Amino acid sequence: MTRIYKILTYCIATVWIANGLFCKVLNLVPRHEQIVARILGDDHSRLLTILIGLSEIIMAVWILSGYKTKLNAIAQITIVATMNTLEFILVPDLLLWGKLNSLFAFIFILVVYFNEFYFNKKQLK
Predict the structure, then answer these.
(1) Model confidence pLDDT, tens digit, residues 31-74
(2) Distance CA 88, CA 39 (A)
(3) Distances in Å between the alpha carbon of 111 and those of 3, 46, 65?
(4) Which candidate, 32, 47, 44, places its Cα nearest to that of 87?
(5) pTM value?
(6) Taking Cα atoms as reference points, which of 119, 7, 103, 2 lies closest to residue 70?
(7) What's the CA gap between 91 and 111, in Å, rounded?
(8) Between the CA atoms of 120, 70, 54 and 34, what dihedral angle is there, to the nearest 10 degrees?
(9) Which of 63, 90, 112, 116 is a plausible cystine mate for 13, CB 3.0–4.6 Å?
């Protein structure tokens, strides 16, 4: 495994853990639950936010496991693109950087893509 690939893999997993555990499960960033409430409704927004957070933690574990990395990268790209498109359209006022969030999401998608399809020597064989 190349050094760049390894470093980026840990950084990508850290993003998922931070967003899942700290922002959603521990509710250290209440804006995340507000986004869920606005998109999916208030009734179960806390529970749904926790479930989304746990899913993000599971994504980080999957990333670190090295299991089916190509499928993992495609899943990450799809999830991030879908989530950010919905937020861009439905709740831009609740996003940290408003509609500019989509730029950061795009950069994250590029990092995931290049990490898997250019820096992962296992995939290049």
Answers:
(1) 999 999 999 999 999 999 999 999 999 999 999 999 999 999 99
(2) 11
(3) 15, 30, 18
(4) 32
(5) 0.92
(6) 119
(7) 25
(8) 100
(9) 63
Q: Which two tokens stand for residue 66?
A: 């090295």
Query: Given the structure tokens 């840990």, which residue do they identify?
Result: 10
Closest among 117, 59, 65, 119 to 83, alpha carbons compared: 59
Residue with tokens 């937020």: 87
Cβ atoms within 10 Å of 121's Cβ, excluding its own: 10
Of 85, 82, 94, 76, nearest in space to 15 by CA: 76
Tokens 């609740």, residue located: 94
Amino acid at 60: A
Separation CA 114–CA 90 (nearest Å): 29
